[in-house]
Design goal:
Chains A, B: This is 5-methylthioadenosine/S-adenosylhomocysteine deaminase. The structure is a homodimer. Chain A is of the alpha/beta class. Chain A contains 15 helices and 16 strands. Helix content of chain A is 39%, strand content 18%.
């Protein structure tokens, strides 16, 4: 992702959690290294950064396909999610972390409940997580208050933990699920803690209409007036935007997590990604949960981002491969303020992955950036490192016990669906 | 794909090239079988049917991304394809057949030149192929005549070969690349040989405009008047259609190969698949070549077909998972008149594949049809059978030597790009 050197055949050296060298020249004394990894037939690239997920919702993969967003949320997702215990969140998240890690995602954003469980899974897995307790405010004041306190105490307790691999944010779930005064309280808490804000915004046409009806303005202006954009902010979706709203996002440096697969599946619409990019808004990629995707394959998100905007706009140069790759890596990291992650460059964090490029769909061995975006999948990932630690080796996760995770996940699922 | 029994946990028996039993009851005497395959943790499903490809174009994967169709074809594809020898077609096709087979595609349609080489690769691989020599008629009359004779002699020689696994068709490349009188000659040849016709149609807005300008009518009416639809016909793309054109396709039982990935990548547009399905047109799925896709993963095509029409129409019920799965299997087979293929049912051809379902993205083990369409990829395929013969075992192709194919392919690629 270094623009001066987009693709090389060469060597990469790490020390502790950092990359110390990348280049075509071989290091002189190979005896100085504690470990040497042979990269023959491998593509080494930055780990993928998934900027929007609700990992515990893996229980709901395939549970309610082909429905519209509000029905899907209110009649299908929320009732079963209401039954989730801390144990379910633990194992649901563990299954997703396993899927993400094995598929080359080294950092993810997670917004959910029982976030202490999520943080513990992230800590154990070795992955990097930007975590936030999402709060829905359509509840009595004392419940609102309790949720906010839970969000604050989670954010405080875990920010900077796991050797710095965990950071936290504050999250009103969405303008349509949080009354304005509640959003203001969350913004104040974010100021007090000096943390960014993450929220869902303008995902479906219906919620934009409802916002206008209820508050007299569209979501962007509504959130701006409530002071949200006075904090560093990452919004998920941002599908339905006017030109003026795009200008506001740019002006306040609001970052957008584009969830191409989820937006298609829930028929939410096609985000104005080429316009956002043209305006200079920082756009990254998120899978959203596996309930609306239905996998956590970030290669697929890069491919969708590169493909759909061409097909819909009629412009085959929209979102070229290099742009999609940057959205899935370096720009994903920058979107969550991890400026030393997401790029293979001396001084950056040693978060990187290896793909098996000795397969038919990587031939001819001519244009690997194209192959990564247009041809690869999560299943091509063989090895994964975060902070210089190897977490996946030859497709096997070294930090989580896959058999245990699948077994415990299935036990939870049986109980939830009894 | 049997609508009465969409998904079961049970047993499947084959004898020679046919399925003789599928059901939940175990067969009584297991000693009667020559081979028993343990399907624990496996999903067994019909092999995928790819109804539009130019397999030899694997050399051009990543060669010219992010350009519009006419520039891409005329300035990038055709000049390098002009250099292709029979040897290139052999190894380019072999690489694609390897990719397709390992990824669960058991039948493909191929339109190209040097088709004898393609047929020999198909024969050796054990795969099923519906093959056709595509002819471009913008050449002097004697070259037109020679190409037509080549197409006829290929179609005659190979139809019904390889134990019936190979069938053939006649193919004018497209209305914009074949003068009307040449198309009529090809139609006459198809009548003489009693073979179907395959052609590209209405892929980009530009070619539809050109057709109107040059011939005074849109491609569907143009082809209808030339007698094309008097033969059984499969058209690829059919992106730009009017309501009246959809009616004509239905009236003549013209089958449409929907190439979702290719149409997006080349910014050709979004085919009116929900409208075609509503009208009762038989729609199947094709990858098109890896130059415009860029892989041959039919799971991705099913997923794209299920996703993009939701996102574009705003209707989350458009192309549900079961429909996409049928398009990729049973309807694909019917589209090329293989009515005894594409379904797991007693009496049908024993073309089926096994997926490793013991992976995080197949959990919970609740809705496998959803998981196949929305979560799986070519890389989940472990085993492949065609005509009851096992062609891929634990991810290894048993009929083609992968190392040899990659080596010879790379030698050809070097020569082509010198």
């Amino acid at each position: 992702m270094d623009e001066e050197m987009p693709f090389i055949q060469g060597h990469l050296i790490t020390e502790n959690d950092r990359i110390t060298y990348i280049g075509t020249e071989a290091p002189e004394d190979q005896g100085q290294f504690t470990e040497i990894v042979d990269g023959t037939h491998k593509v080494i690239m930055p780990g993928l950064v998934n900027t929007h997920n609700h990992a515990a919702m893996s229980f709901l993969r395939g549970y309610a396909d082909d429905l519209n967003l509000q029905v899907w949320l209110q009649e299908k997702m929320w009732p079963i999610e209401g039954k989730f215990t801390a144990l379910d969140v633990k194992w649901g998240t563990a299954l997703s972390v396993l899927e993400m890690l094995k598929g080359g995602t080294t950092t993810f954003v997670d917004m959910y409940d029982h976030m202490g469980e999520v943080a513990k899974v992230v800590e154990m897995s070795g992955m990097r997580g930007c975590l936030t307790r999402g709060v829905i405010g359509l509840v009595p004041p004392e419940v609102q208050q309790a949720k906010l306190e839970d969000a604050v105490s989670f954010a405080k307790e875990w920010h900077g933990q796991a050797g710095g691999r965990i950071t936290t944010m504050m999250s009103p779930h969405a303008p349509y699920t949080c009354p304005p005064d509640y959003i203001e309280k969350i913004v104040q808490a974010a100021h007090d803690l000096d943390l960014p804000i993450h929220t869902h915004m303008s995902e479906s046409p219906g919620e934009v209409e409802q916002n206008v009806k209820q508050y007299g303005e569209r979501p962007v202006e509504h959130l701006r007036k409530l002071g949200v954009f006075g904090r560093p902010t990452l919004v998920a979706h941002a599908v339905h935007l006017t030109d003026e709203e795009i200008d506001v996002l740019k002006q306040y440096d609001v970052r957008v997590s584009h969830n191409a697969g989820s937006n298609l599946k829930l028929a939410s619409g096609i985000a104005r990604v080429p316009d956002l990019l043209r305006a200079g808004v920082l756009v990254s990629l998120g899978t959203d949960s596996s309930a609306s995707n239905n996998n956590l394959d970030m290669f697929e998100e890069m491919r969708l981002a590169a493909l759909i905007h061409k097909g819909v706009s009629g412009d085959p140069t929209a979102v070229p491969a290099g742009t999609a790759l940057r959205m899935g890596t370096a720009d994903g990291a920058r979107s969550i303020w991890l400026n030393d992650t997401g790029m293979l460059k001396a001084g950056m964090k040693a978060d990187f992955i290896a793909l098996d490029a000795d397969q038919p769909h990587f031939y001819p061995k001519s244009n690997f950036i194209s192959h990564i975006v247009y041809s690869a999948s999560a299943k091509d990932v063989t090895d994964v490192w975060v902070d210089g630690e190897q977490l996946v080796r030859k497709g096997i996760c070294l930090t989580l016990d896959e058999e245990q995770v699948k077994y415990e996940f299935s036990r939870c699922f049986e109980r939830l669906t009894q």
